[in-house]
Design a protein that fits this description.
The protein has 9 helices and 6 strands. By secondary structure, the protein is an alpha/beta fold.
Length: 272
């Protein structure tokens, strides 16, 4: 693939939540930054912009990010959104897919090579089954749209190595550092590109956790993750409303993303 401009848009999945890094904008690294760095190492002419923001629903991505993404004239564009819509009490999956179709069609019409994603489908108990039914319907729709628009698909739901809890952040909604690394490798592989990322070995199964510790961890998870999430949704206040995109203007990853973030800080631009 000839060097060009990578533009990513979407929500926390692409912003990099779960993969904290003090020296990256918004305090996050994530798979897209990791992928961009790999592209820059392969060819310094690659450019990169990341417009994704946590907590954004698909309507917000369409209105706030899609016009900016198209104006940047990407040669490669990645898109995933809809997860926050599926978490709502009442979710219209057909409406979400219609908006998804709108974004993919516009990116494809721009001439970019487009990469889309399904949502991960965790193997879990009956408590989350209503949500998982939505996820499966949504994923089926994304697969159909990827075929209709002839775009590349990273089928996260079928990457079953993500059943391993060692790839997930404490909130269990976002990938951790190792999960983001694997996602960067998956996207590069889907594009037919090599990488030098060192991936965590998962050959050995995770150790069994004693029951008492499981109970303590579940209680801490509810207090620290579930209740704050419910409060944010009840009040309509979301972290993404107070944040700016990590890389709203194209940068050259070959120059080093940490160094570029420091330069932005010195020039007074919002880093997060």
């Amino acid at each position: 693939m000839d060097p060009g401009r990578l533009v990513t848009l979407g929500d926390s999945f692409t912003e990099g939540v779960g993969d904290p890094h003090l020296h990256h904008p918004n305090g996050l690294r994530g798979w897209a930054d990791r992928m961009a760095r790999q592209l820059g190492r392969a060819d310094p002419r690659w450019e990169y912009a990341n417009l994704a923001l946590r907590s954004k629903r698909i309507d917000q991505v369409v209105t706030e990010q899609l016009p900016a993404a198209l104006s940047l004239r990407p040669t490669v564009a990645t898109f995933f959104a809809g997860g926050n819509d599926l978490l709502a009490v009442r979710a219209d999956v057909d409406a979400v897919l219609a908006r998804y179709d709108e974004v993919v069609g516009a990116l494809r019409a721009s001439g970019a090579t487009v990469v889309v994603f399904t949502a991960f489908d965790p193997r879990t108990g009956p408590l989350l089954e209503p949500l998982l039914r939505r996820v499966r319907v949504f994923n089926h729709g994304v697969r159909e749209l990827s075929d209709e628009h002839d775009v590349l698909l990273v089928d996260h739901a079928r990457l079953r190595e993500y059943d391993d809890p060692r790839l997930w952040a404490p909130d269990r909604l976002h990938m951790n550092r190792w999960g983001h690394k694997r996602m960067a490798a998956s996207v590069l592989r889907t594009l037919g590109l090599d990488h030098t990322l060192r991936l965590r070995t998962l050959d050995d199964p995770p150790s069994r956790t004693p029951l008492r510790q499981v109970v303590r961890e579940e209680a801490a998870f509810v207090r620290g993750e579930v209740l704050p999430l419910l409060r944010r949704r009840a009040t309509g206040r979301f972290e993404g409303d107070l944040a700016a995109p990590k890389w709203p203007e194209p940068v050259r990853p070959a120059e080093g993303l940490k160094r570029l973030a420091r330069t932005r800080g010195r020039t007074g631009a919002a880093v997060g």
